């Protein structure tokens, strides 16, 4: 098995998220929030794939609205 500090941190964060989450939706939401905070801290933007003809072909506003709707 390959060992590195990066992988060790990845597994630690995954285990923490799994322990704190009550569902897969909660896990994904916590992961998304964590990724946004990380991106802000290190000053980069997370870009999502644009897959025409799929539900993933959404603009940023549609994604933001879908996330807000899911919280209700």
From TrEMBL:
This is Uncharacterized protein.
